[in-house]
User: Which sequence fits this backbone?
């Protein structure tokens, strides 16, 4: 009689232990599953799909702080390319300068107005001159706002009889602003000055 009772108690003890183990295992499995689901959802939320030329491209979202130097350099390069790429066509000049002035403050507008008043753009058109720019380097101090920068580039002024290469050095600051269609990087160039702009080579055509 006592032996049967002990066997029953032992059996219930094993069942309780088994049930306890199953509960612990189930709880751990549920916790791991929930963690993996949230992790997968977070990673999925960071994925961006871009449709370009009929192809779906996958990209990843990231915090802006991770991309500030990259975006800032591209902003500065874009501004310089628009401001200094000229053709003997008033509409081309106006279109490029208009787009460039969305990326900078009044310091860039003043440079443009000074050049216009001096007859620079009229000379480009009447002389059938083209101008292009190649940015060599952009140095940015992103340690504190506003971010200071230095841009080095080479201008090529193509005239009917010659090609003039000029070294260009500019400096300024970058301030963060709201992104827009006209300013996709969300930066504004301030206190922009041309430090150096001199001939380095003249080729006869």
Assistant:
């Amino acid at each position: 009689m006592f032996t049967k009772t002990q066997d029953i108690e032992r059996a219930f003890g094993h069942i309780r232990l088994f049930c306890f183990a199953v509960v612990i295992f189930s709880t751990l499995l549920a916790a791991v599953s929930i963690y993996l689901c949230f992790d997968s959802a977070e990673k999925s939320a960071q994925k961006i799909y871009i449709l370009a030329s009929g192809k779906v491209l996958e990209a990843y979202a990231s915090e802006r702080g991770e991309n500030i130097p990259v975006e800032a350099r591209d902003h500065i390069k874009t501004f310089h390319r628009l401001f200094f790429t000229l053709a003997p066509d008033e509409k081309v000049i106006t279109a490029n300068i208009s787009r460039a002035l969305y990326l900078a403050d009044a310091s860039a507008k003043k440079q443009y107005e000074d050049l216009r008043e001096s007859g620079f753009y009229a000379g480009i058109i009447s002389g059938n001159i083209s101008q292009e720019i190649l940015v060599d380097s952009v140095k940015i101090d992103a340690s504190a706002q506003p971010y200071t920068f230095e841009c080095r580039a080479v201008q090529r002024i193509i005239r009917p009889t010659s090609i003039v290469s000029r070294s260009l050095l500019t400096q300024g600051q970058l301030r963060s602003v709201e992104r827009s269609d006209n300013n996709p990087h969300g930066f504004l160039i301030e206190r922009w000055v041309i430090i150096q702009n001199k001939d380095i080579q003249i080729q006869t055509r």
